[in-house]
Amino acid sequence: MADRVTIPDLLARKRDGKRFTMVTAYDAIQAALVEEAEVEAILVGDSVANVVYGHETTLPVGLDEMVAHTRAAARGRKRALLVADMPFLSYQPSIEEAIRSAGRLLKEGLADAVKLEGGAHFAPTVRALVQSGIPVMGHVGLTPQFVNIFGGYKVQGRDARGAEEILEGARALEAAGAFAVVLECVPSELAAAITRALAVPTIGIGAGRACDAQVLVFHDLLGFTRRGRRLPRFVKRYDTLGDRAVEALKGFRREVESGAFPGPEHAYEMDAAERAKLEAASAPRSEGADLHPVEGRG
Questions:
Q1: How far apart are CA 187 and CA 163, in angstroms?
Q2: Cβ atoms of 163 and 119 closer than 8 Å
Q3: What's the burial of 161, exposed, middle or buried (CB within 10 Å: 0-12/13-18/19+)?
Q4: Is the pTM of this model over 0.70?
Q5: What is the pLDDT of residues 219-260, one digit of tens each?
Q6: Which tens digits make up the pLDDT trace of 48-64?
Q7: Which residues belong to the active site?
Q8: Which of 86, 120, 187, 273 has its CA 20 to 30 Å from the CA of residue 163?
Q9: How far is Cα 84 from Cα 212, in angstroms, rounded to an integer?
C-alpha cells in the first residue's frame, strides 16, 4: 500500500503544478470507495446535514454527529488525507471552544485536519489551532454556514470590492497557517487570482478550473441526489447511481412478490438425519390428542 497522503504532499503538488482531488464521505463504505479511486483527500463535510439527514442547510448538524461520521470514515480510508468540517457554532463562540471542538475531531474522530469557514475574521482562530497542533483548511467565498447572512446560496465576489475582501481573507488564512483554502462559488477570475497569490493549494467548488484541486459531494457526483433537489451549476454527475439503485430495489420487490427470491442458492439446508428428526417432531398430531398431559389430582 502506498504511503499515507500528508499535508506536505499536497503542498508539493501545488509547487509542482500537479492538480489533486477531494471528495466528501460520511461513513466507512463511502470512504473506502473514494480511497479505491485513489482520490488524495476525503472531506467529512457538514454537508452530511443535507445529503444524509435531509436538512435544507448545514446548520443543524452538531459536533457529536461530525465526530461520529468522521470516525466512521476513518475506518474506511487507508491512504487519503482525512479532513473534517467544523460544524456551525463549534468554533465561532471563542478560540478556546474552537480548540476543544477541533481536538475532538482529531482525537475521537481520527481526522488528520479540520476545515472551518470564514475569512480574515477567523485568522486568529486558525493561528491558535495550528499552534495547538491542529492542521487547518480554510474556506472562503460562499460559506454555507453564513447562508442566513448571504440571504441564500449565492455566488460571492462578483464585484471588485467583494472579490478583494475574499482575496484578503484567503491571504489572511494562509498567513495564519492554513495549509489549503477552499474557494466556493466565486468567479473563475477571482479563483485564478487567489490561486496565483497563495503558496498553499486552492480547492475549488464552483470556482473554475484554475484552482489547484477540485472537491465535490459524493452523493452529487455519483447521482444519488434525488429528483426535487436542485443541484448547483458546478455539479457534474459522473453516474446516475440513484436511478440504478431504484431499479435494483424494484427488482427485489418484484421477485419477492412472485416468489422468485430467495432461490435455492440463497437458502441453507439441514443435515438429512437432523431434518428427519424435525419432520417427526413437526408431524400433525391426531385429533383429540392431549398435548399437555398432567397427572390427576386424585
A1: 9
A2: no
A3: exposed
A4: yes
A5: 999 999 876 667 889 999 999 999 999 999 999 999 999 999
A6: 999 999 999 999 999 99
A7: 184
A8: 86
A9: 20
Q: What is the pLDDT of residues 66-112, one digit of tens each?
A: 999 999 999 999 999 999 999 999 999 999 999 999 999 999 999 99
**22: enclosing H helix or E strand:** strand 20-24
Burial class for 97, CB neighbours closer than 10 Å (0-12, 13-18, 19+): middle
CB atoms within 10 A of CB 60: 15
- In which residue ranges of the chain is CATH 3.20.20.60 found? 7-239
pLDDT greater than 60 at residue 182: yes
CATH top-level class of 7-239: alpha beta
Residue 298 has pLDDT above 50, yes or no: no
DSSP codes, 128-179? HHHHTT--EEEEEES-GGGHHHHTSS-----SHHHHHHHHHHHHHHHHHT-S
Helical (H) or strand (E) element with 113: strand 113-115
Return the biggest CA–CA distance within the chain: 105
Give the C-alpha separation, 261 to 134, whole Å: 52
Which H or E run includes 183? strand 180-184
